[in-house]
Amino acid sequence: MAKIIILGGNYFVLPLVxxxxxxxxxxHVVGNSVIDQIRTIADKVHNFSSLDTDKIVEIGKPxxxxxxxxxxxxxxxxxxxxxxxxxxxxxxxxxxxxxKYLMKTAFLNAGIPCAKAIITEYHRDYEPxxxxxxxxxxxxxxxxxxxxxVYHPELLDAALKRATAESFVGKAVIEEFxxxxxxxxxxxxxxxxxxILQVTEKYTAEHFVEAMHIQPAxxxxxxxxxxxxxxxxxxxxxRVKWGASHSEFKITSEGELKIIExxxxxGAEAVxxxxxxxxxxxxxxxxxxxxxxxxxxxxxxxxxxFGVSKFVFNKEDLDNMPSEVVDVSPMESFDGRVVASNEAxxxxxxxxxxxxxxxxxxxxxxxx
Length: 368
Fold this sequence. Notes:
- The chain has 12 helices and 16 strands.
- Strand 10 and strand 11 (210-215) form a beta hairpin.
- The protein folds into 3 domains: 3-86, Rossmann fold; 116-176, ATP-grasp fold, A domain (Dna Ligase, domain 1), CATH 3.30.1490; 181-360, ATP-grasp fold, B domain (D-amino Acid Aminotransferase, Chain A, domain 1, 2-Layer Sandwich).
- The chain has an 8-stranded antiparallel sheet. A 4-stranded parallel sheet has the order 3-2-1-4. Strands 5-8-6-7 form a 4-stranded antiparallel sheet.
- The longest helix has 17 residues, at 221-237.
- The N and C termini lie far apart (50 Å).
- By secondary structure, the chain is of the alpha+beta class.
């Protein structure tokens, strides 16, 4: 029986484990905190860090090594693929897609529209070269960890302390704030050919914590075409050739598109469920195919449905869960904590609907 190694053991990884088992693979999951649902179905759980490349190598060469929605897994997978001569993005590409400053530099060198940024360690009374408000974030983290919007110079010191403390290398990126509606896009690449599967409208709460995702985003056809063109160029600038990608960007009130960042992995927050609702496409299966060196067949069908991922910040969010639910994550006990990062949310649920604004309780916005 061929072996698959999957890095990470949270709820977002569960569909990949299920898909690999469904296809008859011997599934090895690596991680310090593997949820019970995965432990129940995996053939072997290795209880050590999914960042420990040397220990993973000792498991033995698999048919593929992969993950979904885990940013930290990207450079590890690249190193393992290089070691075992498996299909996957290069180590250099992994660096470009996980270091926010290297990413910005690659975009600017390629003429890709994005927010200007600088990188810095913590310095008291630092004076950035941009006007306020600013965004301060760790150079190498995801999930809104350590991200602050800074309105005044006297608040910058605390924001830099927070961001550099969250960073693995003690560095922060300071970038100009881009106003506008936020979006994300899921992509799939095969040998450098990029396909944009779906575009998502994103709604965030305080601390830039993601509160709700809606697919498909309502966009004019010409705007969507422009998004696809720019994102394909951006993925090429990051040297992404294989597998899933998750791109985040904004469109300003003037219609300008600005990329925020791109991850060389599938998005989290059950984005695979929303892609299935809105297009009928098996995103997780395609990720597995690509890791195995099997060219995925991409067929996207407009279903006429909206897919909504709603994140639970309090008990009221859970009490208002609609009947058309297709997925509910495990829910943590409500303890009144401040939800200051994506990890601090209590859970999420995904549902489908035909009338978006009525179902999700938001006001219509400008369609770009």
